[in-house]
Structure formats: C-alpha cells, structure tokens
Design brief:
With about 100 residues, this protein is an alpha/beta fold. The chain has one domain: 3-Layer(aba) Sandwich (Rossmann fold). The protein is built from three helices and three strands; from the N terminus they run βαβαβα. The chain has a three-stranded parallel sheet with strand order 1-2-3, with helices on both faces. The longest helix has 15 residues. The chain starts with a strand and ends with a helix.
Length: about 100
C-alpha cells in the first residue's frame, strides 16, 4: 500500500527514486508481481490526479500487480484529521477500510 502527496504535478522525486530501486524480478526485495494499491488523499482541486497517474505508470513499469480497487483518490481536509493525526471522518475511514479490504482480497 502506498500513499504519497503530489508536488509540482508529480510524485516527489525521492519517492519515485525509491520505487525505481524496487525494479527487479522475482528476487527477494523487489515488488515484481506483488499486489499493490495506493491512496492519494489530496483535497486540492486536482485531487492529486497527476501523482495517481504517475504511480500507475511507475508501478506498472516495475511489474507490480496493481489491484485496481485498491487505487483511489480520497479528498481529506485538515478538518478531517484529529490532533492525534488520525482521520476522524467516518466516510473517509470507511473508504480507507474498503481499499485495504480490496488489497487483502
């Protein structure tokens, strides 16, 4: 499961670099054929659409097994996050739970 912000219309460079190091085959440590999903939680007008698309491209290139139902964009505002850093909005919590269920299935 991945989650990343969007910076300047793309994945943060260091995060993309991390994913590039995961390129491989069935060797231990690679994500080749491993099930993956991601959540982009931006409340921006674009909803982190470019980061979402970038993850699909990069993870497809490294031959991860993308679980479509576990790849979503969920708008989360600061008001939906408690002072402890946990999401307090029940609809967002249900959405995240559904994504995790899809990935596990």
């Amino acid at each position: 499961m991945f989650s990343t912000p969007e910076y300047a219309g793309a994945l943060p460079g260091a995060f993309k670099n991390l994913l590039e190091w995961a390129v491989g085959d069935a060797d231990v440590g690679s994500i080749y054929d491993k099930p993956v999903g991601w959540i982009n939680v931006s409340a921006s007008p674009t909803g982190a659409a470019d980061a979402y698309r970038s993850l699909a491209i990069v993870l497809g290139y490294v031959h991860a097994a993308i679980v479509a139902e576990a790849c979503v964009r969920i708008p989360v505002t600061r008001q939906m996050v408690g002072s402890d850093g946990l999401i307090t909005d029940p609809v967002v919590c249900e959405s995240v739970t559904a994504v995790l269920d899809a990935l596990v299935s």
